[in-house]
Write a structure and sequence with these properties.
- With 274 residues, this protein is of the alpha/beta class.
- The protein has two domains: 12-80, 434 Repressor (Amino-terminal Domain); 88-111 and 154-271, Endonuclease, Chain A, CATH 3.30.870.10.
- It contains twelve helices and six strands.
- The chain has a six-stranded mixed β-sheet, with helices on both faces.
- The relative contact order is 0.11.
Length: 274
């Protein structure tokens, strides 16, 4: 049998295929064996391994189940969303499985709460600045929709959101876009599994964070976090490093106005967008 030599350095897709082959061969499996464990045909397995077929998220997840790992989904996200900040693709995989999500944002509405129109304004602005290409802008908007869809499940996570006041004060796009976005925040606050607070400017030095931060609680109660600056992201899986962030988040919630007061503030801002 002629086995095609693989060059994992030729492209991210080739690297993914080479990884599938290596893990399969390390287990002593033939392509037919992996096909049986994933529900895909051996022909499909061959096409992925040789880079002739682009792997899907479902394929990556089934390969992880077969290999009892989480490496393929992580590599798939790096392949699919290579234009994103370091650490973010891995974080997204955890975010979609978290049972509790706590996030703090500055300056912009966080991705999980963005309307498509608001997200598009942000992406197109980056294109105009030359920071990303039009294709990468489309990729970001698509990823956002995937992230939001992952949270709509039979047992949705608890989602705690604290926004710096700048998030709701900073106009983005046409007034109608901003008004619809603020209305989306109010709708979010009404859900049974959410809490929304706005940290006003007057909190001053009592605000424990200066940069956006997200803390995830997984089903086994382990903690992970993600933080980013303008140029890089950092995903932390060591719980001992995340616990202080969780403590600071609780302090932030205690200092910030209640959800009712925060929604009232948002509605007051909305009056200026009409």
């Amino acid at each position: 049998m002629n086995i095609k030599e693989l060059n994992p350095d030729s492209s991210p897709q080739a690297a993914f295929g080479a990884r599938v082959r290596k893990e399969r061969e390390d287990r002593g499996w033939k392509q037919e064996d992996l096909a049986e464990h994933t529900g895909y045909s051996s022909t499909h397995i061959s096409a992925v391994e040789t880079g002739r077929k682009v792997p899907t998220l479902r394929f990556a997840r089934m390969a992880d189940i077969a290999d009892n790992a989480d490496t393929f989904e992580r590599q798939w996200r790096e392949l699919k969303h290579g234009s994103l900040l370091e650490g973010f693709p891995e974080f997204v995989g955890y975010e979609g499985r978290a049972v509790e999500i706590r996030l703090y944002e500055v300056g912009v509405i966080p991705g999980l709460l963005q309307t498509p129109e608001y997200a598009r304004v942000l992406a197109q602005s980056a294109v105009k600045r030359g920071a990303i290409t039009g294709e990468q802008a489309d990729e970001r908007v698509t990823l956002l929709a995937e992230r939001q869809a992952a949270l709509v499940r039979s047992s949705p996570p608890l989602v705690f959101v604290t926004l710096d006041e700048s998030c709701i004060r900073r106009p983005m796009g046409e007034p109608a876009i901003m008004d619809a976005q603020l209305a989306r925040l109010v709708e979010f606050a009404e859900l049974p599994n959410t809490m929304l607070q706005v940290a006003p400017f007057e909190m001053g030095e009592r605000r424990p964070f200066n940069l956006p931060i997200t803390v995830l609680t997984m089903a086994d109660r382990s903690l992970t976090s993600y933080a980013e600056s303008a140029q890089r992201g950092h995903f932390e899986r060591e719980s001992t490093c995340v616990v202080p962030l969780l403590t600071a988040y609780h302090q932030l919630q205690a200092e910030a106005p209640s959800q009712a007061a925060s929604v009232a503030m948002i509605n007051q801002v909305r009056k200026g967008t009409l």
